[in-house]
From TrEMBL:
Name of this chain's protein: Endonuclease VII domain-containing protein
Pfam families tied to this protein: Endonuclease_7
Residues spanning the membrane: none
InterPro entries, alphabetized: Endonuclease_7 (IPR004211), Endonuclease_7_sf (IPR038563), His-Me_finger_sf (IPR044925)
Organism annotation: Streptomyces incanus
Renumbered residue ranges of the record's region Disordered: 30-51
Length: 142
């Protein structure tokens, strides 16, 4: 069990170095108890910059290069700003940097190209139209 630290009101303890900093020096984190990020403060530590390397195997500079190669726009919709690194969940390979909505859509489709193709056909209006096979004979989509 950790020792209880004497921390003044409005401040938080950096557990890694033992220093106490005011709340203004800590990143906000909506789901953390107390609303402050428990893993790091603004000055760094193992956190935001290391997360890209740990999770995706790329640096911030490599992520920024990807965004620049996409002209700063989402690699899928081409209109919203690129915001989230996307990767293949099987291989771990980084695919690009889509916007929040496109990244969420990929997650909803569970990275299944067949489902994404069917969704595109549905949106284009061709998924449920019968196909004329011979005069008077139509094939319904399965």
């Amino acid at each position: 069990m950790r020792e209880k630290a004497d921390v003044p009101a409005g401040s938080k303890l950096y557990r890694t170095c033992g220093e106490i900093e005011p709340h203004s020096e800590w990143h906000r984190h909506a789901t953390a108890s107390g609303g402050l990020d428990t893993s790091q403060g603004v000055r760094g530590g193992p956190g935001r910059q290391d997360r890209l390397k740990r999770q995706y195997g790329i640096t911030e500079a490599e992520r920024d290069e990807l965004i620049a190669s996409q002209d700063g726009a989402c690699c899928i919709c081409l209109s919203a700003p690129a915001a989230h690194v996307d990767h293949c969940h099987k291989t771990g390979r980084v695919r690009g940097v889509p916007c929040f909505s496109c990244n969420a859509a990929l997650g909803q489709f569970k990275d299944r190209p067949d489902a994404i193709r069917r969704a595109a056909a549905y949106v284009e209006g061709i998924a449920w139209k019968p196909t004329l096979v011979a005069p008077g004979v139509y094939r319904l989509p399965s």
